[in-house]
Amino acid sequence: MSFSDSRLRPFGIFFEKSLKDLINGIRSHNHNAHELHGFLTKSVSECREEVKSPDMTIKTNSILKLSYLEMYGFDMSWADFYVLEVMSSNDFQQKRVGYLAAQQVFHEDSDMLMLATNCLKKDLSNANALKVGIALNGISSIISPNLARDISKDLIKMLRHSKPYIRKKTVASLFKLFLQYPEALRDDFEAFVEKLHDEDTSVVSATVSVICELCKINPQPFMKLLPLFYDMLIEIDNNWIIIRLLKLFTTFCKQEPKLRLKLLPKVLNLIEKTTATSLIYESINCIVKGGMLTADDVDTAVQILELLTKFCASDDPNLRYVSCVLFYYIGKINTAFIYSFDKLVIELLEDVDISIRSKALELLEGIVNEDNLIEITSKLLKQVAIEEEDYTSTVSGISYKITIPIDYKIKIIKSLLYLFSLNDYENISLFEWYITILGDMCDMVLYLKTSIGASNNNVYSKEISGLGVLVGKHLRNVAVKVPEMRDQVVLAIIKIISNSNIYSELSSILVNLFWTLGEFSSLIDNGNDLIRVLISDKEGLVVKLSPVDLKTLFVCLLKVYSNWVNASNTGHTAERNLEEVQKLCKELIEFYEKFSVSVDFEVQERSTQIIEFLKLSFEALEVLNNKGSEEETSGEGQEHQLPGKIELPFLVSDVLPGFFNSWELVPIKQGTQLKLQKKMDLDTSVPFLTAEEIAELDENDVENSFYEDIDDDYNSEVKDQYETSDSDIMDENPYPKKNNKLSKEKIDNPFYLQDDDDDDADGDNAIKERDLLDMNDNTSDTIQTNLDRIQKNKSALLLDTNNSNSGINIQVSRPGRNIDNVSTTQSKKKSKAKKKKIKIISDSTLYNDELEDKLFVNTSSITDKTHRPKNGIDLNLKTNLKNFDFSKPFTTKIGDDEYIEEEDIDINQLRKQFENLKNNDDSMNFKDGEEEEVIIIKKKKKKNNNKKKTNSGKSKKKSKKSVAIIDKEDE
Amino acid sequence: MIHAVLICKLMKFYTPVDVNKQQILFQQVYDLINNRISEEQSSFLVTPPSILLKDNGASAEPDGTDIQIIYKNFATLYFVFIVDDQESELAILDLIQTFVECLDMCFANVCELDLVFGWQTLQSVLEEMVQGGMVIETDKYEIVKAIDLLNMANGNGNMGGPAGSNANTDGSYLTGSLANAFSMFTTGGFSTWGAGS
């Protein structure tokens, strides 16, 4: 090799590529990704050869190139040995290259690093300050616990180096060293802290920086220096250091709230004295983040906010941004502080900078009210609907196109939905507007989804599906909580689901929509048309829905059917005759049959159940139909039936509604059901009702409930706390409703309770739908009243669903409200009308057990707490400084290998000991002292070892004994 | 502390990160920045690159993460600093300014091409300003002085070729104004490694 090397290098000149050649090469191959990759791979393999060269110049050159190539993703950790070689070179510039590469290579505690320790130690003790400097630089990147232990004393010594250049570098590398080896901080605390008084400012600055970082992890050892820092804050006039000190005090204040009294005046004073914006900002930051601004401290708040408002109006976007962030934190301390700044915040929503807009979104909660919500919403939704926004700079006059990123759009929709539902729709003045907006949002989410569909961006598609769920939930909630708006919601939902794109792109919204449709289907006049829309194939999309969606759809269809068939209001739809009922039943059966072979067992089971029931109904209808046509002509029959109810078979007229109309639903605070479970003492072996009671029930319409039998207190408690708020869960009303007929089989049916349990186990805080098997023949109060209302006010609303495919008109009755007032095509921008009194049902809770509430919140926050994904980046530094106990006595160092060995012996000894104890209790008769030697935990062992070193004689004996025991056992 | 610095093709991580993830982060950060108008918009990247995100899009929580991405651009060059909450945002912006001023002193009228080819110079300037994630020097004269000393220091090894001859001779493909691109500060020593001989 050396021959060929020399042959090809006449005049001693080498022709290997330099870094410059490499960069040039990369640039010339840059236009084609494939070509570039080829070139890079080729270069790497060239380097692989070159690095083996005995010529240090070539070796160094290739290491430098490899370090550069790593920026293109070519890992160079394989070259660690060569890096070490270059690091150890006598040539200073080669050494520099070596250290540079080492910072990229030696991250883990590799074997090579152990070899490097010697080289580092040598360089650290070099007389040449520059060599020491680059070594220190390297150390801060490559330090490991072992290395830290080995060189800590060397570094501490360097703190007294004559050159400030070295001192500051030493301080900086000590930061990483302390993280890896906290013992050094404990043992040489004074020597380190002394640097706060160094004559060189950059050394002081570095020391403060390091202390600042260390305190973030563990402030405890530095607490005693508080007075010193306080004096520094007053005396020093270097802005860099003051900013650092402010950061430091922020950390301290979080630990020690008492500091506030002394520090706050000082910081406020600092704000007044200085002209540097960054200093003012950091002072405010310190006050806010350090918790020095209390919720009742209006004076300070006003002073700070005045400054921040000025910053927010600044031309400097950076200043606007950071102030906006601070506004948020102030608002979190007390919303009242920022309430009056609504104008400013709304302005910021249209800032040229999306980052600032995004922060302003977070501020909205603090400033939103009934009057500005509509303005805010229209401003924001406009931004969701467009891709780019034109902007002409006021300063330079240049026009830009601002791209509105998708995650910002997602954030807008999330924030708006949150604002709408705040405190039971506190800020909604016009519910028709709200529902229209929800419909618009659904369109927008769909649009977002389709717009990213092509790029197949998984991160966002998951988020957008989540938005679908949210919009669905909000539609559902408004339907449940605001009874007067139910017809509106149903209309909006029908409009949404007639768009078949929803099925393919945004099926996550469907669960809640289906449920709401089913639940409030009594408001729909031509349910038969709706059913046909729902069961229409939509190019096979329905069949592809998820099991959860399907299950909800199944029940929904049954509900719509039940309500349509049994509606007494027959005025509008003449075709609600027996034949149509029967025909629809048949269509439904056909629909469900598609799923009777579903892979999902739940879907399969449910569809089969429903099919069986519908088949029975169909037969019953057929019997009736035949009878009717035998007795009279069909036309006469219809007329005969028209004024009243169609005479339907019992199965359809009573049993079918009985599936669903047991309870009126009310919204219930999240977690209430969980509490209820704990509270109830249920003995499942005892029948709910005695035979007599059932008989009694069968005779009369008794107002009764299961719950009263079980826990009388419960109902009264519920009533007491009926009005509480804030949640999105709804549940069955535990209130008893009129029980008309209570058939025995149903009550005894064990499934009833089981279903209850299942739903809870799911933890699904959405709606618990009534199960099919819950066959209580009750008629809901509300349904009755609704029907009454409908008869009074027969106005029905026709909605063109805009879907030419289905071409249906779903008519929704609007009970008890004047139709003239409202039109469904209400404009978004319609100015605020006089607020009507609309009844809103708040969430009900069980009892005001705050502790339990907290518990519940805790558990949910635990589940929310997520770890970084495996493929993400974790920027946390590994350190055991956090839990390091600085009060422990000094220790001497122990070699790691020795340590592990000892540990192994411990475990082996323990294992053996237990084995022996098991086999033969008598075989192990330890004396007390020996036993202590064997059963020992890791930490104690360490101490023992120290002892061993100090007074070796005694402990050596002990360890010998334990080894001897092992030997014995081995035999 | 400063977790990472990204400039051109220079990626310096003060917290260990896999090489593959470095690449992804680099790409994501640049994609995000490219969507912004740097003249008018702020230097803060509110949307973190998805690789820095926690699961379930915890980004909605404003105080969920204390990592900030602060960048500044000069012409088509971006200087990106990834820092945590112990660093002052505005101070980091000042630091970037200092950085550029130092480069300007090294290259005399720094331009993009300088930084592309002066990768090692970037490294050494950065090294004198930030060490292990800590800012150690903010005075540009101190920084450049230190680099001079380092570059002029000569070891007792077998350096190939006379230092300083390269930058000028290899400058043929650079623009004319770049003939003096490598100022006296950087012509010697370490930076010659980029040029070879």
Automatic annotation (TrEMBL), chain A:
Q: Does the keyword Ion transport apply?
A: no
Where does it live in the cell? Cytoplasmic vesicle, Clathrin-coated vesicle membrane; Golgi apparatus
Q: Where is the composition biased (Acidic residues)?
A: 754-763
Q: Give the membrane topology, semicolon-separated if more than one.
A: Peripheral membrane protein
The alphabetical list of record keywords is: Cytoplasmic vesicle, Golgi apparatus, Membrane, Protein transport, Repeat, Transport
InterPro entries tied to this protein: AP3_complex_dsu, ARM-like, ARM-type_fold, Clathrin/coatomer_adapt-like_N
Gene3D superfamilies, per the entry: Leucine-rich Repeat Variant
Main localization category: membrane
One Pfam family hit = Adaptin_N
Name its GO BP terms in alphabetical order.
Golgi to vacuole transport; protein targeting to vacuole
Source taxon at top rank? Eukaryota
- Protein role: Part of the AP-3 complex, an adaptor-related complex which is not clathrin-associated. The complex is associated with the Golgi region as well as more peripheral structures. It facilitates the budding of vesicles from the Golgi membrane.
Can you state the subunit structure given in the record?
Adaptor protein complex 3 (AP-3) is a heterotetramer.
State the family it belongs to: Belongs to the adaptor complexes large subunit family.
Name of the protein? AP-3 complex subunit delta
The protein's organism comes out as Saccharomycodes ludwigii
Taxonomic placement? Eukaryota, Fungi, Dikarya, Ascomycota, Saccharomycotina
From TrEMBL, chain B:
Q: What is its main location?
A: membrane
What is the superkingdom listed in this entry's lineage?
Answer: Eukaryota
TM region(s), chain numbering: none
Supply one GO BP term: vesicle-mediated transport
Cellular location of this protein? Endomembrane system
Q: Where is the AP complex mu/sigma subunit domain?
A: 9-152
Name-wise, this protein is Related to AP-3 complex subunit sigma
Q: Name one GO cellular component term.
A: membrane coat
| Native species | Saccharomycodes ludwigii
Keywords assigned? Membrane, Protein transport, Transport
InterPro entries attached to this UniProt entry? AP_complex_ssu, AP_mu_sigma_su, Clathrin_sm-chain_CS, Longin-like_dom_sf
Query: Would the keyword Protease turn up in this protein's UniProt record?
Result: no
Matching PANTHER family: ADAPTOR COMPLEXES SMALL SUBUNIT FAMILY
Q: What family is it from? A: Belongs to the adaptor complexes small subunit family.
